[in-house]
Amino acid sequence: MSDDATLSAFRLADSFLPDGSHTASYGLEQFVQADRVTDADELEALLETYLRRQVGPADLVALRAAHAGAGDGDLDAVLRADRRLAATTLAAEFRESATAAGGRLLDLQCAAREAPLLERYARRVDARDAPGMHPAVLGAATAVAGVGEREACLLCCHALVTGLLGAAQRLLALGHTDAQRLLVALRPAIRAAVDDSTTRALADMTPFTPLVDVLTAEHERADRRLFTS
């Protein structure tokens, strides 16, 4: 990648990026409330499940399809990836979090650079012709920025894990050292998720995290909530 593309990747992976993802725990809050995640080891197991059973078989498939479509200047291909991911995301809170973060990311990208394809994409999202799911938006944005497809997938996984570790620091007694240890320990799961997505087409999305879906549904009705999901 060029230096500009590499710097764009750093910016998109930075927690400083104000896309609102810090407001979501993607089910982790309810796992903690239900005493299903109480320490760093249980957190590592849950994050590995997210990566291997949700991100690899679904989010990264949509990201790759959107990246390829944007790289070819084919907005319809980006929209197909976006809609398919929304259709296969069972939990309402996950869809809401992903569309909120995706819409914000799309607005930020349009404000930061001239990108006709992203501007047309934003208009379709504003018209509710597409949901604007974050992985699809990220795929399109990284393609426009010249970030490679595999690098974009690694970026997506890294951003998800760091976001969840940030949530865990507010929900658990998780220190910065444990968070860094988990970032390293989860590298094999990240690589496995990225590799799993390489041969899947949009029709082959098979996310399967039933316990995550059940607890996320319970989170919708929880009396106390620190996070939106």
From TrEMBL:
<dbReference type="InterPro" id="IPR038277">
    <property type="entry name" value="UreF_sf"/>
</dbReference>
<keyword id="KW-0996">Nickel insertion</keyword>
<protein>
    <submittedName>
        <fullName>Urease accessory protein UreF</fullName>
    </submittedName>
</protein>
<dbReference type="InterPro" id="IPR002639">
    <property type="entry name" value="UreF"/>
</dbReference>
<dbReference type="Pfam" id="PF01730">
    <property type="entry name" value="UreF"/>
</dbReference>
<dbReference type="GO" id="GO:0016151">
    <property type="term" value="F:nickel cation binding"/>
</dbReference>
<keyword id="KW-0143">Chaperone</keyword>
